[in-house]
Amino acid sequence: MEEFKLKGEYIKLCQLMKAVNLISNGSDAKFEISEGLVKVNGEVALERGKKIHPGDIVEYKGKQIHVY
Prior knowledge:
Number of domains: 1
Number of strands: 7
CATH class: Alpha Beta
Strand content: 25-35%
Radius of gyration: 10 Å
């Protein structure tokens, strides 16, 4: 499991995906999220602007990102 340290209160899901190099650009993130391929805390996330907070776990293509 990879870890990501927040610099603020939260980060948007699409921004996190770009920050940890899960995708290369925002349009890829939008597509992958809208297709239901991304989970947050075990539940499918369909909002690319979903706020990710400390303690959340994002899953995509077998990779897990723990946000702290």
